[in-house]
């Protein structure tokens, strides 16, 4: 490929008119549990935007239902847990996870998306990082301060370890099943890991993310490790594992890559809010990122987090075209 590959996190929904039309009749979980609809939404951005990968339309919470965690997705808020897990008895009661019985719809949707795309672009499967999933389970809803999460982590480390072990085991099984179903790459979303110090990450999170990446070692698929607000954790995240590291806009991409080392690939890192601006500014910011990496192999252009619902579709299309047109032989 003579140009930088590009795809966007959350590219399958939110801002696309076709997706919004589907949402008029179906909620998010209903779409996820309908393989035909899910595969349609998954493949839509490839046709509409010209991106170089299709990421499965799913929610990181889906496998938790198979472990006995009841939740709903509330519009404008996110996952709401019926009964937050904050005790040893509750953690012990979490059920074992079998992908075939718990999330057959995800696996079926991967197969359908694979047929629709006919090897045009790779399909990216994903799971939530154990820390991020634990934070939802413990807090009961999205949070900014993670008080209940850290309280359990510090006050009851044995229960914390039990919960994290169960989540790591479940996610390991989940991503392996996605690869068997046809996923060409796996991304671990540890969206909220940036709330930890490097010391706490090493003790309370690293071993469990590491287990998931190790589970994929024999799968021969790229493993993408992503988090937000992780400028202080890059070296620790590399220790946890991954072949590609997604970074957000809070750190220059060349500096992040230097710290991670060029033996791994890097993904990012345009601020999603930049896509709300005039297309001239969008291209200017994209050009800065592309010039920073100087054509070094292993860069995947992406946003630093999910694409915003307010994003003009034309801006996304123009950005993809701009990145594709920024040829390697034009770079300094």
Description:
The protein has 332 residues and is α/β, with parallel strands linked by helices. It has one domain (17-330): Alpha-Beta Barrel (TIM Barrel), CATH 3.20.20.210. The chain contains 16 helices and nine strands. It has helices at 17-23, 28-32, 35-49, 62-65, 88-92, 99-102, 104-117, 130-139, 147-155, 157-181, 198-204, 206-215, 234-240, 253-260, 279-293, 313-325; strands at residues 54-55, 71-74, 78-81, 123-128, 185-190, 223-227, 244-246, 265-270, 299-303. Helix 9 crosses helix 10 (157-181).
In summary, what is this structure?
The chain contains 16 helices and 9 strands. The chain has helices spanning 17-23, 28-32, 35-49, 62-65, 88-92, 99-102, 104-117, 130-139, 147-155, 157-181, 198-204, 206-215, 234-240, 253-260, 279-293, 313-325, and strands at residues 54-55, 71-74, 78-81, 123-128, 185-190, 223-227, 244-246, 265-270, 299-303.
CATH class: Alpha Beta
What series of H and E elements makes up the topology? HHHEHEEHHHEHHHEHHEHEHEHEH
Principal-axes geometry comes out as globular
- Main sheet, how many strands, which sense, barrel? 7 strands, parallel
CATH topology grouping: TIM Barrel
Helix content: 40-55%
Rg on CA atoms, Å: 19 Å
Q: Helical segment tally?
A: 16
Layout of helices and strands:
Layout: H1 17-23, H2 28-32, H3 35-49, E1 54-55, H4 62-65, E2 71-74, E3 78-81, H5 88-92, H6 99-102, H7 104-117, E4 123-128, H8 130-139, H9 147-155, H10 157-181, E5 185-190, H11 198-204, H12 206-215, E6 223-227, H13 234-240, E7 244-246, H14 253-260, E8 265-270, H15 279-293, E9 299-303, H16 313-325
Parallel strand pairs: 1-4, 4-5, 5-6, 6-7, 7-8, 8-9
Antiparallel strand pairs: 2-3
Helix pairs in contact: 3-7, 8-9, 8-10, 9-10, 10-12, 12-13, 15-16
